[in-house]
Amino acid sequence: TRPKPRVGPLSFPDGFVWGCATASYQIEGAVKEDGRGETNWDVFSHTPGCVANGDTGDTACDSYHRYGEDIALLKQLGVKAYRLSIAWSRIFPEGRGTPNAKGVDYYNRVIDALLAAGITPYVTTFHWDLPQALPGGWQSRDTALAFADYAGFIAGKLSDRVTHFITVNELRCFTDLGHQDGKHAPGLRLDARSVNQVRHHGVLAHGLGVQAIRAHARSGTQIGIADNSNFYVPVIETPEHIAAAKVAVREENAMFLTAIMEGRYTERYLTSIGADAPKIASGDMAAIGSPLDFVALNVYAPNYVKASASPAGYEVLPHLKSSPRMASPWLYVGPEVAYWAVRTVSELWKPKALYISENGTSADDPVVNGHVDDADRIMYLRNYLTEFQRATEEGYPLKGYFLWSLMDNFEWADGYTLRFGLHHVDFVTQKRTPKLSAAWYRELIRRNTLV
Ligand code: GBH
């Protein structure tokens, strides 16, 4: 089937959920307040040499105290939804054991304020800030069990008001980047077998988390995952390359999203890791494959793929020096990945609903006369959203889009050197200033049509 020619305005479906996203450690600050326990990112960011400039999340955007101001910004934008994450260590300072009422109170206040502003909260239960007290961290199977207990507990507390829960954010980042590449907390470079075990605990935590949230939440609660799978664009839109892109999505994410959607590891993955396979307890794969109400995708950089005569059937093309990028070295620009991420995931696994849980870009964002005129961010967003619109027009079940991010924040190993916000944050005064892209996004939401 040939794509329809694009004529007329690029409108989104009625009721499309426009939102913004953030994460606890990147915005909250107040790391020692109201009984919050220490996390792996507190330790990592305070270890010299781990984060650019020695930056930490100690203060970040101070959203722990300024959430009211942040919600006012969301209201100004006209968003219908806000994706936030809960800091596990505010709820269970030791990761497990006795819950901390003050931590629960904080999120109750945030959620009540969002609802009062007419904004639907989408709650992520884990966006990388892991309680440091859990022995062995993600190397330990017990961490997956502790996560499920915590997720079930918080669902029980919030699901009278929260209708959408996301278990974990980006499996590949908190497993591989932290335990294989040493670039994120806890900064380890483990052997292949240990990394595969960490990956298994990651998907297991997700699966047990789904079951625990389901058991403690009101019926009808929607549960999903936010994953940054590697997504593939067929280099030419012909049947052979499209087929290659689908195989690539399935095999390159075999240890993460594919395991979750299919409840098993692919033969090719198991063969490729051989003796380095993780220990898998009976019942694990069924838990990992627990049915989801939606799948959410974080979509940024593209990968281009072509069909090949190799045993895999596809070949991933390398990024080149001439490939366009935004301010982050990894953020190659390829708007078509937006369409192909939605299409390949839809065709492979037929999820009931899809969301884009993150999309956005870093940019230089110079402040000139008190303004940030970020035409490059608007260019990036317009082009990616044109491709998401195509996916909705062709009938793929894309229900909403969360822009990363509401405001500049702690960009992990890059500290405060890279800005992703629709709002500029002065990290000395904490003043938030809308960039030009905020006005652009507000107009898009108002018209439900790309302008
Ligand atoms: C998301 O990750 C995160 O969910 C969010 O918290 C973050 O702020 C946002 O994107 C912007 O980065 O160091 O060269 O190995 C996006 C996917 C994958 C991007 C890992 C950074 C590290 C590249 N991330 N990648 S490198």
UniProtKB/TrEMBL annotation:
It is an enzyme of class 3 (hydrolase). It comes from the Bacteria. Its EC number is 3.2.1.21. Pfam families: Glyco_hydro_1. The keyword Hydrolase applies. Gene3D superfamilies: Glycosidases (3.20.20.80). Keywords: Carbohydrate metabolism, Cellulose degradation, Glycosidase, Hydrolase, Polysaccharide degradation. It catalyses: Hydrolysis of terminal, non-reducing beta-D-glucosyl residues with release of beta-D-glucose. PANTHER family: GLYCOSYL HYDROLASE (PTHR10353), LP05116P (PTHR10353:SF36). NCBIfam families: BGL. Belongs to the glycosyl hydrolase 1 family. This is Beta-glucosidase. It comes from Sphingomonas psychrolutea.
